[in-house]
Design brief:
The protein is mainly beta and 135 residues long. Helix content is 15%, strand content 53%. It has an 8-stranded antiparallel β-barrel with strand order 1-2-3-4-5-6-7-8. The longest helix is centred in the first third of the chain and has 16 residues.
């Protein structure tokens, strides 16, 4: 039993050392003032923060899929927005080529479309996504 616990502790330590946190910035397609910063852990979205807010909103995976469209591998994942322990809305993340898109659906079914802002999301060195929140 001690050996199993030691192996488990080593695995958790190694995993935490290689966990990659990054942030991507998104602009609303129809409202230039509406912007969001998405926090990723190993390329999985874990929270959303709207520009002007002080705290992030956690996300919980609903489902994911992968398909190939015209030569590009496209992934689509759906997440519930959890606010005060309740589902408040749904985010659909789509990644295709270099582009990321989000559709946010409020609980009253109003939809908002977002597109990644690569100028704000990529590090100035061009080496990956930023490591700090966008806003």
């Amino acid at each position: 039993m001690k050996k199993v616990n030691l192996i488990l502790c080593c695995f958790l330590l190694i995993t935490s050392l290689y966990a990659q946190k990054s942030f991507r910035c998104f602009d609303c397609d129809n409202n230039i003032k509406l912007k969001i910063s998405v926090e990723y852990l190993n390329d999985t979205p874990i929270s959303v923060k709207y520009k002007g807010q002080t705290s992030s909103i956690p996300l919980k995976l609903i489902k994911g899929s992968q398909k190939t469209v015209t030569g590009y591998s496209t992934t689509e994942e759906s997440y519930n927005e959890i606010l005060n322990g309740q589902i408040n809305g749904k985010y659909i993340f789509t990644h295709s080529g270099n582009w990321d898109y989000i559709v946010y659906i409020r609980k009253d079914d109003v939809k908002f479309n977002f597109t990644i802002n690569l100028n704000e999301s990529i590090k100035p060195s061009g080496d990956g996504y930023r490591e700090t929140p966008c806003y």
